[in-house]
Amino acid sequence: MARKFFVGGNFKMNGTLSSIKEIVDNLNKSELDSNRDIAEVVISPPSLYLLPTREHLRKEIEVAAQNVFDKPNGAFTGEISVSQLKDSNITWTILGHSERRTILGESDEVVSTKTKYATDNGLGVIWCCGESLEEREAGNTISVITKQLDSLKSKNPDWAKIVIAYEPIWAIGTGKVATTQQAQDVHKAIRDWLKGVSDKVSDETRVLYGGSVNESNCGELSKQPDIDGFLVGGASLKPAFVKIINCHQ
Ligand SMILES: O=C[C@H](O)COP(=O)(O)O
Asked: I want to staple 178 with a disulfide (CB 3.0 to 4.6 A). Which of 30, 100, 182, 197 is the partner?
């Protein structure tokens, strides 16, 4: 089946009120189109800017948090709840990004628990996985990703609310994009793993590629049968993000 192309922009801890307003203004006036179909687009500014982004951004583009907690409102200093996001019309969150796994120490268990809570409570999740350079060089890419996926499956989340982002850690922010074949091979392995959940989940779940995607490399990557879009970091802060949104054939 045809899966709708999906492009996420992860601003990470970048931007100011004025620079994010510029990005929003640029997206608002851009023609989001392609030969095939308009992509589903979600941008993810830092939490401080979620609400002004949602208020000023065109309605066809959704807004994502970069993290969410797995408890209802309460005494959890520094966290944001699913209901607070939904109350502000923030309909997505990123979870399991490698920067949160490695720098903030989030384990597979923490990421899976948050994903279960978010999806059960109606939030879409861009769920990230990926291997380090050492893991790739040791030939462990698929086993690392399988372990991350197995942890998620064990929580029985709502797969209809999940988009998977495969992001090799060695390709993030480094300018070293995975080759189209390297990316496609892992995406195919993820698609095959998803068959173990169900054929429907395997057919319908979008699997994005992330890691140094830009307007020059996105076209080739988007032609791969198991690449259903991108999670873009640095390039999502630039006007050329629109070219990535429109790149699929
Ligand atoms: O979430 C986005 C990824 O970490 C990719 O970042 P990048 O496009 O700057 O390499």
From this structure: 182
Residue 70, in any domain of the structure: yes
For residue 171, the ligand 1 atom closest to its alpha carbon is: 10
Cα–Cα distance, 139 to 142 (Å, whole number):
8
99: CB partners within 8 A, 6+ apart: 12, 172
pLDDT in tens, 49-104: 999 999 999 999 999 999 999 999 999 999 999 999 999 999 999 999 999 999 99
User: Is 1 within the bounds of a domain?
Assistant: no
Nearest residue by C-alpha to atom 8 in ligand 1: 233
**Residue 241 within a domain:** yes
Residue type, 183: A
| Ligand 1 midpoint to CA 211 (Å) | 5
Q: Is position 137 annotated as part of the catalytic site?
A: no
